Amino acid sequence: MLKNRRFLVLIALLLSVGLFLAACGSSDDGGEETGGDTGEDTGSSEEAGSEGGDFSVAMVTDVGGVDDKSFNQSAWEGLQAFGEENGLTEGEGFDYAQSESDADYTTNLNRLVRQDYNLIYGIGYLLEPAVSEVAQQYPDTNFGIVDAVAEGDNIASITFKEHQGSFLVGVAAALKTESNQVGFVGGVDGDLINKFEAGFVAGVKSVNPDIEVDVQYAGSFDSVDDGNLIASNMYSKGIDVIYHAAGGTGNGVFAQAKDIKNSNPDENVWVIGVDRDQYEEGAINDTNVTLTSMVKRVDIAVADVAEQAMNGEFPGGEVLEYGLEDDAVSVARTNEEALTEEIITAIEDWKEQIVNGEVEVPSTRDELQTYVDSL
Amino acid sequence: MLFSNKVVNILIPIISVLLGLLAGAIIMLFFGYNPVAGYAALWNGAFSDIYFFGETIRQVTPYILSGLAVAFALRTGLLNIGVEGQVFVGWLASVWVGVAFDLPMIIHLPMAVIAAALAGAFWGFIPGILKAKLGVHEVIVTIMMNYIALYISNAIVRNVITDGEDRTENIADSASLGADWIAQLTFFSRLHYGILIALFMAVVMWFILNKTTTGFELRSVGFNPHASNYSGMNVKKNIVLAMVISGAFAGLAGAMEGLGTFGYMNVKSGFTNIGFDGIAVALLGANTALGVVLAAFLFGTLKIGALNMPTEAGVPTELVEIVIALIIFFVASSYIIRWVFLRMKKEGK
Fold first, then answer.
1. Which residues lie below 8 Å from residue B317, measured CB to CB, with a gap of 6+?
2. Quick one: B193 and B295 in the same domain?
3. What are the pLDDT digits (tens) for A178-236?
4. Which of A49, A172, B89, B349 minimizes the number of CB atoms within 10 Å of its CB?
5. B203 CB-side CA count, 13 A
6. CB-based contacts of B332: which residues, under 8 Å, 6+ apart?
7. Which B residues in the span 294-323 are in contact with A, Cβ-Cβ below 8 Å?
């Protein structure tokens, strides 16, 4: 029996080590961090940052991390650009804190507050409860929440009209598909990603109501395996264009598309990226599977609000909505081969109609139903 | 006397931890980070002021309970990998009771806590009864039960407790383990009364195992089920009982998160790892109540302190996970350390 127990302990060891390794495996950044020295908590810069010199800004990522090639990374690029422009140094003037689990959000926010940052962003709607709570406790610090609306005089809520951009990539997908089947892979099923879904489906159906759209949700934003599996099912069913709104999970969609393309270069498979221009993600041999990307300029918005805060005009308590008209939502055109003149013209055409208000893009499933019925 | 069994048993985890830290330092050096700055940042991140200290204790609380859960089952010879799932159902049950009722605190809070324990106990009962009656290995069943718990609680949060929302409402104040004066004192850390429950449960575990007939039977089954059976103990009953009690501890760990740390339950995209880390805590704590408490303290410190390492020392958090993994590695390979001790003992003579 003693042997048996030793065996069990061994299993336990293997499992736990495996788990830890798995937890480590998600990130592969190339040691880019520079060792900032922010040791002292209660430093000198106590006064609120109306003068540019003392201004500092930081962000807390969700579990995706700053190298998710998507949302968090875009925000971090925005802060880096802002920091560079204003001569701030990383670790003092601007910084990020990465969350390993959702229990870390509040801890990370608090830590940055205690390091006297003037403006602290929560990146992603998952941080909304944490930002609301911490903002209430520290009324003298300004907070920003991206992709969600939080109430409080010291919180600026940054949202995007993703449905508009998704509509336009839907148009592109509809014009590109040859099988008349396209797919949508969502991260977590909820209000936010439903906006992408509704806009995309509406865009596809506006071009050709007969095209079938297969909508699937992976259930998380950091599950590459699920993305891979769903994409594999979709492509084998004959779907040739997949739009993903799934953060890190979407990397699995790219991997699958590239696999197919690698084994058979003539296969007609496309991925539409999200949040950032994901052209680089789609490169395989001398071709590219990224048709286009629904670019959400989180970086522009984040830098814009930081700029306002630095100038003492922090839009506290406001809900800012960035859309097509601000170029904060756009369609990437890096893949010039795949995105033909015809498609671009169509996109421009629809874009104008949306900006003019002639087309009201649906942002929920209910609105989508009404929209499709009216076609 | 220097190398008596008792001393060796205490020394092995300590040496393991030290070796783990040492190996972590070497890895940090290898990748070009300063290990002294790294560990200093870890320390500061966990203890440098009262806020972080509060957060560390907050993190220690569920670890104690999940560690107790694993340890209790292991003492009876069962490997409960399902602590994670039992944490989920406990969390769900406590929050459900917390939002559904409006009662005076003296009834509401105990009710929510007990609901969590019962839910966890039920989740432990299923693999227990399957093992006892049909001989199904508890490792397989509990692993699978984890996924069932994860997806069922997601479905219940989304469709039953709320109307398609991603998270439940906050629990009523009368069911909360948090206290304003603690929050004030610790600059809004999420430290809560749960630590008292956790410590009390450690005493309960010690008492059950070492001071009662039931505990004697449980341990006896763990040492040798056949001999226990021969001597007239009901092995099957004891297996079920061990899993039920283990599940109850795990359910309480869930209540710590539901009623203390978060005050709500949200739709989870993956495991919390509280249960899985509990396996490591139990191993490091040598499956004893006191050992588990100390090991949980170490793990909580590492977890919270690790958050500070990237900011203050530029060391990636992943490295801290590696250090933890190394510590477990050295604990599990205690055989080697024991062997070295034996050699030294012989040579000493």
1. A98, A100, B306, B307, B309, B310
2. yes
3. 999 999 999 988 888 999 999 999 999 999 999 999 999 998 888 899 999 999 999 99
4. B349
5. 6
6. A9, A10, A12, A13, B283
7. 304, 306-308, 310-314, 316-318, 321-322
Which portions of chain B are predicted below pLDDT 70? Answer: 1-3, 348-349
**pLDDT of A8:** 55
Q: Which residue of B has its CA nearest to A90?
A: B311
Q: What is the pLDDT of residues B220-276, one digit of tens each?
A: 999 999 999 999 999 999 999 999 999 999 999 999 999 999 999 988 878 888 999
B43 in any annotated domain: no
Domain of residue B340, residue span: 1-33+315-349
Q: Which residues of B are less than 8 Å from A190 in CB distance?
A: 166, 267
Number of domains in chain B: 2
Distance CA A59, CA A54 (A): 17
Decide if B89 is inside a domain.
Answer: yes
3-class state of residue B240 by DSSP? helix
Residue B110 lies in a domain: yes
Nearest to B63 by CA among B209, B288, B281: B281
* Residue in chain A lying closest to B225 (CA): A1
Are B322 and B256 part of one and the same domain? Answer: no
* Token output for B305: 């302190």
- In contact, B98 and B111? CB cutoff 8 Å: no
Q: How far is B315 from chain A (nearest CA, A)?
A: 8
> Searching chain B, which residue's CA lies closest to the CA of residue A35?
B314
Judged by a CB distance cut-off of 8 A, whether residue A16 touches chain B is: yes
Please give the ipTM for the structure prediction.
Answer: 0.76
> Are residues B135 and B168 both part of a single domain?
yes
Q: Look at strands A283-284 and A270-275 and give their pairing.
A: unpaired
CA-angle at A115, arms to A112 and A121, nearest 5°: 30
What does DSSP say about strands A119-123 and A57-60: parallel, antiparallel, or unpaired? parallel
- Identify the structural domains of chain A with CATH numbers, from first to last: 52-160+299-322 (3.40.50.2300), 162-295+340-374 (3.40.50.2300)
Transcribe A176-195 into DSSP letters. H-SSSEEEEEESS-SHHHHH
Q: Are residues B99 and B131 in the same domain?
A: yes
Most A-contacting residue of B187, B239, B311 (CB-CB within 10 A), to test interface: B311
Mutate to test the interface with A, among B184, B269, B333 (most CBs of A within 10 A): B269
Residues of B with Cβ-Cβ distance to A27 under 8 angstroms: 316, 318
Burial of B166 (0-12, 13-18, 19+ CB in 10 A): buried
What residues have CB less than 8 Å from B108, skipping those under 6 apart?
A: B97, B98, B101, B102, B172, B174, B175
CA distance B116 to chain A (A): 19
Cα B45 from chain centroid (whole Å): 21
Q: Are residues B166 and B73 in the same domain?
A: yes
CATH code where residue B193 lies: 1.10.3470
Strand ranges, E, within A197-269: 212-217, 241-245
Same domain, B293 and B321: no
Rounded Cα–Cα distance for residues A244 and A254 (Å)? 9
> Is residue B45 a part of any domain in this protein?
no
pTM value surpassing 0.80: no
Residues B264 and B329 reside in one and the same domain: no
Please, is A181 exposed, middle or buried when counting C-beta atoms within 10 Å of its C-beta (0-12, 13-18, 19+)? middle
Nearest to A17 among B31, B257, B325 (CB): B325
Q: Which residues of B touch A110 (CB under 8 A)?
A: 51, 55, 187-189
Same-domain check for residues B180 and B245: yes
Nearest CA distance, B322 vs chain A (angstrom):
7
Shortest CA gap A51–chain B (Å): 24
Binary contact (A104, B307; C-beta < 8 A)? yes
